[in-house]
UniProtKB/TrEMBL annotation:
<feature type="domain" description="Cupin type-2">
    <location>
        <begin position="14"/>
        <end position="79"/>
    </location>
</feature>
<dbReference type="InterPro" id="IPR013096">
    <property type="entry name" value="Cupin_2"/>
</dbReference>
<dbReference type="Pfam" id="PF07883">
    <property type="entry name" value="Cupin_2"/>
</dbReference>
<dbReference type="InterPro" id="IPR014710">
    <property type="entry name" value="RmlC-like_jellyroll"/>
</dbReference>
<dbReference type="InterPro" id="IPR011051">
    <property type="entry name" value="RmlC_Cupin_sf"/>
</dbReference>
<protein>
    <submittedName>
        <fullName>Cupin</fullName>
    </submittedName>
</protein>
């Protein structure tokens, strides 16, 4: 966790059927709970893991990765970001694939 006072950001993200998220990274700690659907998370190192409803992802910090909706229907994620005060986002999108 970051040093000092933290802010908890809670958001729900819905990933459309067949969608691939852009390559991105998280500077601070992020957790995601899979509410529905199946998602594969792959990183720039070639690692890949599939998550299903009821599972929690502990996302890698400072590692470029992306999510891919594997199933029919939407993926719904409840996302928790722990960031320093004054920070309003925890995602940095890459402009090109790794």
């Amino acid at each position: 966790m970051p040093d000092g006072p933290l802010r908890l950001l809670v958001n729900r993200y819905v990933i459309r059927e067949g969608a691939n998220l852009p390559w991105h990274l998280h500077p601070e700690q992020r957790y995601a709970y899979v509410e529905s659907g199946s998602i594969r998370v792959e990183d720039e190192r070639g690692n890949s893991q599939v998550y299903a409803p009821g599972q929690t992802l502990v996302e890698q910090r400072q590692v470029v990765h992306r999510g891919i909706n594997l199933g029919q229907g939407e993926v719904s994620l409840l996302v928790f970001d722990y960031v320093p005060r004054g920070v309003h986002t925890n995602t940095v999108v890459r402009t090109s694939a790794p």
